[in-house]
Write a structure and sequence with these properties.
5-stranded mixed sheet; Ribosomal Protein L25, Chain P; 7-stranded parallel sheet; about 35% helix
Length: about 260
């Protein structure tokens, strides 16, 4: 059995977790608890809904194998409702990447507290809109697994894939828009603006970066270029480095 404070997290739908309730666990979650973790009735787990509700719960029954003869259930013991994250809000718009690179970026965005991630469709994007839309369910599962691993009460919002035109057309007018670019301003120069912003959106292009017309489009809409490192970064590395840098510059509380 897991040590107190290290109980495995189980993700449920919003509205299912209430004090003293008996909840039915999703089949895939139950298989993981019974198989990989070797838990059984009496073990304590943590239930979360990705909307701020987190609860300790005792397993009452746990089916094994894919053909489960009875539902796997848990009784809610203690419920805690975490408040929504306070400002500043950090969002990431990342050029859609292939395979593990995008999975890694989604995972790290969850771990770093990014509130919304939007896959971007740009001139050099590695995925078309059709493929990006097909991958959305997979990225959502990656984000959910990362939420459980890092014990985050509020889920990452995974937006629909957008073109840059669509992004600037739907962006919050009050947000600070930044674009990762080697020719951009230094973080020190932009620090006062980041610290004062209630919401910041960071655009990171795909491998090869954004083309000139795309940078010009963003600049026409008031987006500021920012240099994240001395050397050229891979797109997924730039995303993680950029979010970490903005978190620090904004003075975001780590609690």
């Amino acid at each position: 059995m897991a040590e107190p404070g290290h109980e495995p997290w189980v993700l449920l739908g919003e509205g299912q977790i209430e004090p003293d309730a008996i909840v039915t666990l999703p089949a895939d979650e139950a298989r993981h608890l019974a198989g990989a973790l070797r838990l059984g009735a009496g073990a304590v787990v943590v239930l979360a809904d990705g909307a701020g509700t987190v609860a300790r719960a005792e397993l009452l029954s746990l089916g094994r194998g894919r053909a489960q003869s009875r539902p796997s259930e848990a009784r809610v013991l203690e419920v805690e409702r975490a408040p929504r994250p306070r400002a500043p809000r950090l969002e990431l718009a990342l050029g859609a990447l292939h395979g593990q690179a995008m999975d890694w970026a989604v995972q790290k965005a969850v771990e770093q507290g990014v509130e919304r991630l939007t896959p971007l469709l740009t001139a050099r994007s590695q995925l078309s809109r059709t493929v990006a839309e097909r991958r959305a369910a997979h990225w959502q599962r990656v984000a959910e697994q990362a939420l459980k691993q890092c014990r985050r009460p509020w889920a990452l919002e995974l937006g629909a894939a957008l073109s840059l035109d669509e992004l600037v057309g739907t962006a919050d007018g009050g947000a600070l828009g930044l674009v990762a670019d080697p020719g951009g301003a230094s973080p020190a120069d932009l620090a006062p603006r980041v610290a004062a912003a209630g919401s910041t959106v960071l655009v990171v292009g795909p491998e090869g970066g954004l083309v000139g017309d795309e940078l010009a489009l963003l600049e026409r809409h008031g987006w500021q270029r920012i240099c994240l490192a001395r050397h050229v970064l891979r797109a997924e590395t730039a995303a993680v480095a950029g979010v970490a840098l903005l978190t620090w510059l904004s003075g975001l509380e780590m609690t």
